[in-house]
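Deadline looming. Please check this record:
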Amino acid sequence: MPHLRLGTFPKLGVTGAALATFTGRSIGVLYQFYRLLRGTERIRILRSQIHLNFTVLLRLLRVSLTGILQFMIAHTSWIGLVRIVSIFGSAALAGYTIAIRILIFVLMPSWVSATPPPPSLARTSAPSSPSVRKLPSGAPVFTT
């Protein structure tokens, strides 16, 4: 058993990894709330500003419902594939998991490049826009 300052702690394997992740993230969120609600930082959240607006929450849920369903279908199918591959043993499951991670890593740049920039960014970063002409002095003239 590993020895910590708090005493001995049993090896928990995957359960221990899940508990450590949950504990670390929970402590991080609590610390963020502590800093934001304290009122001494640049960004302050007052207790009077925290309230639930159910009409906005319902509108957000209605707008995001299709995305939630798409996410659930993708992850449910992935769990189903893992279950099917696990029938063939741990080596096949490990190979499948590594292959999926490599595939996701390789596809990440294409996801980013397939996402269109926001209109404000496209407008300001365009090298030459048909709506902008230059005078002989070099000053831009904006036309509509």
